[in-house]
Protein backbone atom coordinates (compact mmCIF):
# COMPACT_ATOMS: atom_id res chain seq x y z
CA UNK A 1 0.00 0.00 0.00
CA UNK A 2 2.77 2.42 1.03
CA UNK A 3 4.74 1.43 -2.08
CA UNK A 4 1.65 2.07 -4.25
CA UNK A 5 1.14 5.52 -2.70
CA UNK A 6 4.83 6.26 -3.26
CA UNK A 7 4.46 5.37 -6.94
CA UNK A 8 1.49 7.72 -7.28
CA UNK A 9 3.37 10.78 -5.98
CA UNK A 10 3.26 13.35 -8.82
CA UNK A 11 7.05 13.72 -8.92
CA UNK A 12 7.59 9.98 -9.54
CA UNK A 13 7.30 8.07 -12.80
CA UNK A 14 5.17 4.93 -13.28
CA UNK A 15 7.95 2.76 -11.86
CA UNK A 16 7.99 4.86 -8.70
CA UNK A 17 11.32 6.52 -9.50
CA UNK A 18 12.01 10.22 -9.00
CA UNK A 19 11.41 12.12 -12.27
CA UNK A 20 13.12 15.47 -12.88
CA UNK A 21 10.75 16.20 -15.74
CA UNK A 22 7.60 15.69 -13.65
CA UNK A 23 9.11 17.59 -10.72
CA UNK A 24 9.98 20.56 -12.94
CA UNK A 25 6.42 20.51 -14.34
CA UNK A 26 5.00 20.43 -10.81
CA UNK A 27 7.13 23.46 -9.87
CA UNK A 28 5.99 25.24 -13.06
CA UNK A 29 2.33 24.50 -12.25
CA UNK A 30 2.68 25.87 -8.73
CA UNK A 31 4.74 28.93 -9.80
CA UNK A 32 1.90 31.36 -10.79
CA UNK A 33 0.01 30.60 -7.54
CA UNK A 34 3.21 31.03 -5.49
CA UNK A 35 4.00 34.35 -7.19
CA UNK A 36 0.54 35.78 -6.50
CA UNK A 37 0.64 34.47 -2.90
CA UNK A 38 3.95 36.33 -2.46
CA UNK A 39 2.45 39.54 -3.89
CA UNK A 40 -0.55 39.08 -1.60
CA UNK A 41 1.43 38.72 1.63
CA UNK A 42 3.79 41.55 0.67
CA UNK A 43 0.81 43.87 -0.11
CA UNK A 44 1.74 44.43 -3.75
CA UNK A 45 -1.76 43.90 -5.19
CA UNK A 46 -3.30 47.34 -4.72
CA UNK A 47 -6.58 48.27 -3.06
CA UNK A 48 -8.51 45.09 -3.94
CA UNK A 49 -6.03 42.25 -3.44
CA UNK A 50 -8.67 39.48 -3.53
CA UNK A 51 -10.03 40.74 -6.86
CA UNK A 52 -6.50 41.08 -8.26
CA UNK A 53 -5.71 37.50 -7.18
CA UNK A 54 -8.90 36.12 -8.72
CA UNK A 55 -8.13 37.83 -12.04
CA UNK A 56 -4.58 36.45 -12.01
CA UNK A 57 -5.79 32.90 -11.31
CA UNK A 58 -8.47 33.19 -14.03
CA UNK A 59 -5.80 34.25 -16.50
CA UNK A 60 -3.60 31.29 -15.58
CA UNK A 61 -6.56 28.90 -15.79
CA UNK A 62 -6.92 29.79 -19.47
CA UNK A 63 -3.16 29.47 -20.00
CA UNK A 64 -3.07 26.02 -18.37
CA UNK A 65 -6.07 24.85 -20.42
CA UNK A 66 -4.19 25.81 -23.61
CA UNK A 67 -0.97 24.22 -22.35
CA UNK A 68 -2.82 20.97 -21.56
CA UNK A 69 -4.32 20.99 -25.07
CA UNK A 70 -0.88 21.62 -26.59
CA UNK A 71 0.80 18.58 -25.04
CA UNK A 72 -0.53 15.91 -27.43
CA UNK A 73 0.19 17.94 -30.62
CA UNK A 74 3.66 18.82 -29.30
CA UNK A 75 4.43 15.20 -28.40
CA UNK A 76 3.40 14.10 -31.91
CA UNK A 77 5.24 16.96 -33.63
CA UNK A 78 8.40 16.16 -31.67
CA UNK A 79 7.91 12.38 -32.04
CA UNK A 80 8.31 12.32 -28.24
CA UNK A 81 5.55 10.18 -26.66
CA UNK A 82 7.11 10.66 -23.19
CA UNK A 83 5.93 14.28 -23.16
CA UNK A 84 2.36 13.13 -22.48
CA UNK A 85 3.27 12.05 -18.92
CA UNK A 86 2.71 15.66 -17.81
CA UNK A 87 -0.71 16.11 -19.51
CA UNK A 88 -2.73 14.99 -16.49
CA UNK A 89 -0.78 17.25 -14.14
CA UNK A 90 -1.28 20.33 -16.33
CA UNK A 91 -5.00 19.59 -16.82
CA UNK A 92 -5.60 19.06 -13.11
CA UNK A 93 -3.71 22.32 -12.44
CA UNK A 94 -6.16 24.17 -14.72
CA UNK A 95 -9.09 22.72 -12.73
CA UNK A 96 -7.49 23.64 -9.37
CA UNK A 97 -6.80 27.22 -10.52
CA UNK A 98 -10.40 27.54 -11.80
CA UNK A 99 -11.73 26.34 -8.45
CA UNK A 100 -9.50 28.81 -6.59
CA UNK A 101 -10.72 31.56 -8.98
CA UNK A 102 -14.36 30.78 -8.09
CA UNK A 103 -13.55 30.54 -4.37
CA UNK A 104 -11.93 33.99 -4.44
CA UNK A 105 -14.97 35.38 -6.26
CA UNK A 106 -17.14 34.04 -3.41
CA UNK A 107 -14.77 35.61 -0.84
CA UNK A 108 -14.78 38.90 -2.77
CA UNK A 109 -18.59 38.84 -2.51
CA UNK A 110 -18.29 38.44 1.29
CA UNK A 111 -19.24 34.74 1.19
CA UNK A 112 -22.85 35.53 0.15
CA UNK A 113 -23.45 32.15 -1.51
CA UNK A 114 -27.07 32.93 -2.45
CA UNK A 115 -26.01 36.16 -4.15
CA UNK A 116 -23.19 34.38 -6.03
CA UNK A 117 -25.57 31.62 -7.20
CA UNK A 118 -28.01 34.31 -8.41
CA UNK A 119 -25.21 36.12 -10.28
CA UNK A 120 -24.13 32.85 -11.95
CA UNK A 121 -27.70 32.38 -13.19
CA UNK A 122 -28.19 36.05 -14.17
CA UNK A 123 -24.90 36.95 -15.86
CA UNK A 124 -24.11 35.05 -19.03
CA UNK A 125 -20.32 35.34 -18.67
CA UNK A 126 -20.52 33.83 -15.17
CA UNK A 127 -22.87 31.05 -16.35
CA UNK A 128 -20.47 29.94 -19.07
CA UNK A 129 -17.50 30.29 -16.67
CA UNK A 130 -19.33 28.02 -14.25
CA UNK A 131 -20.14 25.44 -16.94
CA UNK A 132 -16.46 25.49 -17.99
CA UNK A 133 -15.44 24.97 -14.36
CA UNK A 134 -17.83 22.00 -13.96
CA UNK A 135 -16.40 20.52 -17.16
CA UNK A 136 -12.82 20.96 -15.97
CA UNK A 137 -13.70 19.37 -12.62
CA UNK A 138 -15.26 16.36 -14.41
CA UNK A 139 -12.13 15.93 -16.52
CA UNK A 140 -9.84 16.28 -13.49
CA UNK A 141 -11.63 13.67 -11.36
CA UNK A 142 -11.70 11.19 -14.25
CA UNK A 143 -8.05 11.71 -15.20
CA UNK A 144 -6.71 9.07 -12.82
CA UNK A 145 -5.79 5.51 -13.82
CA UNK A 146 -8.74 3.85 -12.07
CA UNK A 147 -11.24 6.14 -13.87
CA UNK A 148 -9.49 5.60 -17.23
CA UNK A 149 -9.87 1.82 -16.73
CA UNK A 150 -13.47 2.06 -15.51
CA UNK A 151 -14.69 4.38 -18.30
CA UNK A 152 -13.01 2.46 -21.12
CA UNK A 153 -13.87 4.01 -24.51
CA UNK A 154 -16.17 6.53 -22.83
CA UNK A 155 -13.07 8.13 -21.32
CA UNK A 156 -11.80 9.37 -24.69
CA UNK A 157 -15.25 10.72 -25.56
CA UNK A 158 -15.53 12.49 -22.21
CA UNK A 159 -12.07 14.02 -22.49
CA UNK A 160 -12.89 15.46 -25.93
CA UNK A 161 -14.97 17.91 -23.89
CA UNK A 162 -11.68 19.73 -23.28
CA UNK A 163 -12.21 21.60 -26.60
CA UNK A 164 -15.71 23.02 -25.92
CA UNK A 165 -14.52 23.80 -22.37
CA UNK A 166 -11.64 25.84 -23.83
CA UNK A 167 -14.10 27.70 -26.08
CA UNK A 168 -16.34 28.53 -23.07
CA UNK A 169 -13.32 29.66 -21.03
CA UNK A 170 -12.20 31.94 -23.87
CA UNK A 171 -15.70 33.35 -24.29
CA UNK A 172 -15.86 34.08 -20.54
CA UNK A 173 -12.50 35.85 -20.86
CA UNK A 174 -13.67 37.88 -23.89
CA UNK A 175 -16.96 38.98 -22.36
CA UNK A 176 -15.50 40.15 -19.07
CA UNK A 177 -12.68 41.98 -20.92
CA UNK A 178 -15.25 44.09 -22.83
CA UNK A 179 -13.35 46.23 -25.39
CA UNK A 180 -9.81 45.50 -24.12
CA UNK A 181 -9.58 42.08 -25.73
CA UNK A 182 -5.88 41.95 -26.60
CA UNK A 183 -4.96 38.93 -24.47
CA UNK A 184 -8.14 36.88 -25.05
CA UNK A 185 -7.68 37.42 -28.80
CA UNK A 186 -4.09 36.16 -28.64
CA UNK A 187 -5.24 33.13 -26.61
CA UNK A 188 -8.05 32.45 -29.10
CA UNK A 189 -5.52 32.66 -31.97
CA UNK A 190 -3.23 30.15 -30.26
CA UNK A 191 -6.22 27.85 -29.67
CA UNK A 192 -7.06 28.16 -33.38
CA UNK A 193 -3.47 27.17 -34.25
CA UNK A 194 -3.73 24.06 -32.06
CA UNK A 195 -7.08 23.13 -33.61
CA UNK A 196 -5.74 23.71 -37.14
CA UNK A 197 -2.79 21.41 -36.39
CA UNK A 198 -5.14 18.71 -35.14
CA UNK A 199 -7.26 19.05 -38.30
CA UNK A 200 -4.23 18.42 -40.57
CA UNK A 201 -4.02 15.09 -42.38
CA UNK A 202 -1.61 12.92 -40.35
CA UNK A 203 0.77 12.58 -43.32
CA UNK A 204 1.36 16.36 -43.42
CA UNK A 205 2.28 16.79 -39.78
CA UNK A 206 5.99 16.09 -40.13
CA UNK A 207 6.44 18.42 -43.15
CA UNK A 208 8.37 21.65 -42.79
CA UNK A 209 6.11 23.89 -44.92
CA UNK A 210 3.22 23.14 -42.55
CA UNK A 211 4.60 25.45 -39.82
CA UNK A 212 4.74 28.76 -41.74
CA UNK A 213 1.40 27.90 -43.41
CA UNK A 214 -0.24 27.27 -40.03
CA UNK A 215 1.29 30.44 -38.55
CA UNK A 216 -0.05 32.55 -41.43
CA UNK A 217 -3.49 30.92 -41.26
CA UNK A 218 -3.67 31.37 -37.47
CA UNK A 219 -2.63 35.04 -37.78
CA UNK A 220 -5.39 35.64 -40.34
CA UNK A 221 -7.85 33.70 -38.18
CA UNK A 222 -6.91 35.83 -35.17
CA UNK A 223 -7.61 39.01 -37.15
CA UNK A 224 -10.99 37.50 -38.14
CA UNK A 225 -11.85 36.66 -34.50
CA UNK A 226 -10.94 40.20 -33.41
CA UNK A 227 -13.00 41.68 -36.26
CA UNK A 228 -15.99 39.49 -35.33
CA UNK A 229 -15.73 40.45 -31.65
CA UNK A 230 -15.70 44.19 -32.37
CA UNK A 231 -18.55 43.80 -34.90
CA UNK A 232 -20.79 41.76 -32.59
CA UNK A 233 -20.01 42.88 -29.06
CA UNK A 234 -18.84 46.51 -29.18
CA UNK A 235 -19.87 49.78 -30.78
CA UNK A 236 -16.36 50.18 -32.23
CA UNK A 237 -15.94 50.09 -36.03
CA UNK A 238 -14.47 46.62 -36.77
CA UNK A 239 -13.02 47.77 -40.13
CA UNK A 240 -10.78 50.30 -38.34
CA UNK A 241 -9.61 47.55 -35.97
CA UNK A 242 -8.89 45.29 -38.95
CA UNK A 243 -7.02 48.07 -40.75
CA UNK A 244 -4.78 48.53 -37.67
CA UNK A 245 -3.24 45.15 -38.57
CA UNK A 246 -1.73 46.64 -41.74
CA UNK A 247 0.72 48.84 -39.85
CA UNK A 248 3.07 48.51 -36.89
CA UNK A 249 2.42 52.15 -35.87
CA UNK A 250 0.18 50.93 -33.00
CA UNK A 251 2.67 48.29 -31.90
CA UNK A 252 2.16 44.57 -32.40
CA UNK A 253 -1.53 43.62 -32.70
CA UNK A 254 -2.91 40.21 -31.54
CA UNK A 255 -2.76 38.82 -35.11
CA UNK A 256 0.95 39.78 -35.33
CA UNK A 257 1.69 38.21 -31.95
CA UNK A 258 -0.04 34.96 -32.91
CA UNK A 259 1.81 34.79 -36.27
CA UNK A 260 5.19 35.43 -34.62
CA UNK A 261 4.66 33.11 -31.64
CA UNK A 262 3.33 30.23 -33.76
CA UNK A 263 6.15 30.71 -36.30
CA UNK A 264 8.66 30.50 -33.43
CA UNK A 265 6.93 27.46 -31.93
CA UNK A 266 6.82 25.74 -35.33
CA UNK A 267 10.54 26.41 -35.82
CA UNK A 268 11.35 25.09 -32.31
CA UNK A 269 9.22 21.97 -32.88
CA UNK A 270 10.84 21.28 -36.27
CA UNK A 271 14.35 21.69 -34.79
CA UNK A 272 13.34 19.55 -31.78
CA UNK A 273 12.05 16.79 -34.06
CA UNK A 274 15.23 16.85 -36.15
CA UNK A 275 17.37 16.69 -33.00
CA UNK A 276 15.41 13.69 -31.72
CA UNK A 277 15.60 11.78 -35.01
CA UNK A 278 18.05 8.87 -34.81
CA UNK A 279 21.37 9.48 -36.58
CA UNK A 280 21.66 7.53 -39.86
CA UNK A 281 24.05 4.63 -39.57
CA UNK A 282 26.94 5.14 -42.01
CA UNK A 283 28.68 1.87 -42.78
CA UNK A 284 32.30 1.98 -44.03
CA UNK A 285 32.62 0.93 -47.65
CA UNK A 286 34.41 -2.27 -48.35
CA UNK A 287 37.74 -1.76 -50.13
C1 LIG B 1 -12.80 27.42 -16.40
C2 LIG B 1 -13.42 28.37 -15.80
C3 LIG B 1 -12.97 29.81 -15.78
C4 LIG B 1 -11.96 30.43 -16.43
C5 LIG B 1 -10.96 29.84 -17.39
C6 LIG B 1 -11.99 31.81 -16.06
C7 LIG B 1 -11.11 32.79 -16.52
C8 LIG B 1 -11.20 34.12 -16.26
C9 LIG B 1 -10.35 35.13 -16.81
C10 LIG B 1 -9.22 34.85 -17.78
C11 LIG B 1 -10.71 36.31 -16.31
C12 LIG B 1 -10.09 37.67 -16.64
C13 LIG B 1 -8.79 37.88 -15.97
C14 LIG B 1 -8.20 39.24 -16.28
O1 LIG B 1 -8.91 40.13 -16.74
O2 LIG B 1 -6.99 39.40 -16.03
C15 LIG B 1 -11.84 36.08 -15.46
C16 LIG B 1 -12.52 37.06 -14.76
C17 LIG B 1 -13.53 36.80 -13.90
N1 LIG B 1 -14.12 35.58 -13.66
FE1 LIG B 1 -13.59 33.81 -14.41
N2 LIG B 1 -13.02 32.03 -15.21
C18 LIG B 1 -13.66 30.81 -15.01
C19 LIG B 1 -14.74 30.57 -14.22
C20 LIG B 1 -15.34 31.52 -13.44
C21 LIG B 1 -16.43 31.27 -12.53
C22 LIG B 1 -17.06 29.91 -12.28
C23 LIG B 1 -16.74 32.46 -11.94
C24 LIG B 1 -17.78 32.78 -10.93
C25 LIG B 1 -18.92 32.24 -10.89
C26 LIG B 1 -15.86 33.46 -12.51
C27 LIG B 1 -15.88 34.80 -12.18
C28 LIG B 1 -15.08 35.77 -12.72
C29 LIG B 1 -15.15 37.16 -12.34
C30 LIG B 1 -16.10 37.79 -11.34
C31 LIG B 1 -14.18 37.82 -13.08
C32 LIG B 1 -13.81 39.30 -13.05
C33 LIG B 1 -14.76 40.15 -13.82
C34 LIG B 1 -14.51 41.62 -13.59
O3 LIG B 1 -13.36 42.06 -13.69
O4 LIG B 1 -15.46 42.29 -13.31
N3 LIG B 1 -15.03 32.87 -13.40
N4 LIG B 1 -12.12 34.73 -15.43
Commentary on this structure:
The protein is mostly helical and 287 residues long. The protein folds into two domains: 21-177, no CATH class; 179-275, no CATH class. The chain has 13 helices and no strands. The longest helix has 29 residues, at 49-77. The model has no long low-confidence stretch (mean pLDDT 92). The structure holds protoporphyrin IX containing FE. Protoporphyrin IX containing FE (HEM) is lined by residues 55, 58-59, 61-62, 98, 101-102, 105, 120, 126, 129-130, 132-133, 136, 169, 172-173, 176-177.
Salient structural properties:
single chain, 287 residues, mainly alpha, 2 domains, 13 helices, binds protoporphyrin IX containing FE
* Overall pLDDT: 92
End-to-end separation: 63 Å
Please give the count of helices. 13
- The helix content is over 70%
Query: What shape does the CA trace take?
Result: globular
Describe the secondary-structure layout.
Layout: H1 2-8, H2 20-41, H3 49-77, H4 87-108, H5 113-122, H6 124-141, H7 145-151, H8 153-159, H9 162-177, H10 182-199, H11 210-233, H12 238-243, H13 254-276
Helix pairs in contact: 2-3, 2-4, 3-4, 3-9, 3-10, 4-6, 5-6, 6-9, 9-10, 10-11, 10-13, 11-13
The structure holds protoporphyrin IX containing FE.
Protoporphyrin IX containing FE is lined by residues 55, 58-59, 61-62, 98, 101-102, 105, 120, 126, 129-130, 132-133, 136, 169, 172-173, 176-177.
Amino acid sequence: MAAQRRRKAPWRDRRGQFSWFKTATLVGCAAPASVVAFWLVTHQLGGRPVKATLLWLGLWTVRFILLALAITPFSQALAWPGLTVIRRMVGVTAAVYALAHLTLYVIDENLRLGFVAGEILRRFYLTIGFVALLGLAALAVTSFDAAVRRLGRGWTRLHRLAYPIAVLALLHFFIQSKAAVGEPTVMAGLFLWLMAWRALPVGWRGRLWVWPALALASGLGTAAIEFAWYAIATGIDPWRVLAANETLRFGLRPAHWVTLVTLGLGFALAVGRAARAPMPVIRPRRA
